[in-house]
Amino acid sequence: MERLRLGTSEIEITQIIMGTWQAGKVMWAGIDDAETSRAIRAAYDAGINTFDTAESYGRGHSERIVGEALAPVRDQVILATKVASHLLQYDQVIEACHRSLENLRTDYIDLYQIHWPAGSFKSKIVPIEGTMRAMNDLKERGKIRAIGVSNFSRAQLEEACQHGRIVSLQPPYSLFWRHVEEDAMPYCRENDITLLAYSPMAQGLLTGKFGKGHKFSKRDHRAKNKLFGEEQAERVHQALEALRPIAESRGITLGQLALAWAIAQPGTCAIAGARNAEQVLENAKAGEVRLTAPDLARMDEIGRRVTDPLDKDPVLWKF
User: Fold this and answer.
1) What is the mean pLDDT of the chain?
2) Which of 57, 112, 173, 198 is an active site residue?
3) Phi, psi at 316, each rounded to 5°
C-alpha cells in the first residue's frame, strides 16, 4: 500500500489508516472486543501500518485494545492518539500522554494530537501556547514523535503553528462533507501539513448500506449525524444512485469508491473504521484504486448535490 510522509516529519503512513473510535464501544452499538482485535491484526496483515485512536474513546478502552493487538509488532506500526479538549492545561497534557503510553503498551507515541480545540463541548478555555508547550516538551523527551491537531479551523491551526510544528490536521472529510476545503485545506497544502480525513465514508452513509429512513439506536452517535437527517435523505439517495455506476464500472464497492476519492485529494489520507476483519480487508483494497480525472470530476458534481445545501457549521453531529 502506498505511503505518504506525515507532514515534515520522517514518519511514513499508509494512505488508508485504521480508525478505532468504535473500539471504545461508548457511542457505538454491537461492538465485540475480540472481533475488534482480529480486525486490527487483519489491517496490519493487509499492509495498513497506521492506527488512530484517542483516550476519550471509551475512557482509554480503545487505546488498550489497540495496544494489546499491536504489541507484538509495535516497532512496525504507527500509533496515533489524542488528548481531550478538557485536558489541555500543561500538566494535564503531560499526565494524559503518560496514560495513553500505558494504555498503548509503548514508550513513545508516533503522532499525538489535540482532539478538539479548547472550549469545545463547554470545556475550559486554555491558551494554545501552554498546550503546545506541553506537546513540545513531550516531543523533546522522546515521548512523542510528532504533533497534530484535530477538528481545528484554519485560524486555530495557524495560531497553534506559531508555537510548534504541526504535521497533521484531522477533520471530518468525505464526498458528502467538505467544509475543510474552503477553510483549512489550502493552509495545509501551503505548509506541508497532512490531512487525515476522518469519516471518509460519512460514517457508513457512502457505503449505500443504509436505506432512506434508517434509524440508529439512541446509543449510536450516528443518530445525531447531520447527514442522516430526514432533510438530507432524498439528496443522499439520489447521489448514491448516481455514484453506483462509477463503482460498478471499476468492480469496487461504494465504500471503496468513497475512500479512493478521499486519498485522491493531494496530501490526504483516509481514516477508515471497521467492526470486523472483512470490513478491514475491503477498506484496504481501496488503497489500490486510482480514479481518473473524469471520475473525480463526475464525483465532485454528484457530491455537491449533498454538500451545497448544508449550512456552514463544520461540526458533523448535533450533539
Assistant:
1) 93
2) 57
3) -75, -20
Return d(Cα 193, Cα 209) in angstroms, integer. Answer: 33
Which are the contacts of 75, defined by CB distance < 8 A and separation ≥ 6? none
Number of neighbours of residue 234 by Cβ within 10 angstroms: 10
- What is the tens place of the pLDDT at every residue in 99-156? 999 999 999 999 999 999 999 999 999 999 999 999 999 999 999 999 999 999 999 9
Higher per-residue confidence, 186 vs 317? 186
pLDDT at residue 242 in the model = 97
Lookup result for grid cell 475491503: 282
Taking only the tens place, the pLDDT of each residue in 210-241 is 766 666 666 665 666 688 777 888 999 999 99
All residues at 6 or more sequence positions from 65 whose CB lies less than 8 Å from its CB, including other chains: 20, 23, 33, 36, 37, 40
Question: Cα separation of 76 and 292, whole Å?
Answer: 32
The secondary structure of residue 124, as a DSSP letter, is: P
Residue 15: DSSP 8-state: S
Q: How confident is the model over 21-43, as a mean pLDDT?
A: 91
Degrees (nearest 5) of the Cα angle 191, 196, 200? 135
| Cut 0.90: pTM above it | yes
Task: State how far the alpha carbon of 258 is from the alpha carbons of 16, 144, 155, 253, 297, in Å.
Answer: 12, 31, 28, 9, 14
- All 3 cell numbers of residue 20? 478505532
Angle formed at CA 258 by CA 6 and CA 23, multiple of 5 degrees:
65
Q: Where are the domains of the chain?
A: 3-209+253-290
Contact 142, 172 (CB under 8 A): no
What is the CATH code for 3-209+253-290?
3.20.20.100
Count CB atoms within 10 A of the CB of residue 300: 13
- Does residue 57 have an active-site annotation? yes
SS (H, E, C) 241-288: HHHHHHHHHHCCCHHHHHHHHHHHCCCEEEEEECCCHHHHHHHHHHHH
